[in-house]
Amino acid sequence: MLKTNKAFSSFSVNDLAQAKDFYNNVLHLDVQDKNGWLELRVSGDTRILVYPKPNHTPASFTVLNFPVDDIVRSVADMKQEGVAFERYDDPGFKTDEDNIARHDGGPHMAWFTDPAGNIMSLMQDK
Fold first, then answer.
1. CATH code of residue 88
2. Is 119 exposed, middle or buried (0-12, 13-18, 19+ CB in 10 A)?
3. Within the chain, where are the H helices?
4. Which domain of life is it from (predicted)?
5. Which domain holds residue 53?
6. What pLDDT digit, counting tens, does each position of 74-122 carry?
7. Is residue 1 part of a domain?
8. Does 4 reside within a domain?
9. Number of structural domains, the chain?
């Protein structure tokens, strides 16, 4: 019934102006104001809605993944833009000195948060 409709994702933030600055000026995404929400446009016509929520609680999971061709270069470039990457040191789940989790058989990943604390990642398929 729904497979012919274009689905899209959305998530909340606590400060729309701060989010707009981050997504536009740090991540360099196409950001449009849409009636009190933000619309992020990625990869052509893919859109993601970002909406303000006064009692926002950051997601405790990854809400958005960005595929990249070279994760080492992408992490370094984003660090130059002021993005801080997460460090994980759990059994079976660790990031290295470059803040990258290099999974055997899976994608390499690096996680960061937006100003509202939502978790996002860069992901490079092997």
1. 3.10.180.10
2. middle
3. 16-21, 71-80
4. Bacteria
5. 9-124
6. 999 999 999 999 999 988 789 999 999 997 888 999 999 999 999 999 9
7. no
8. no
9. 1
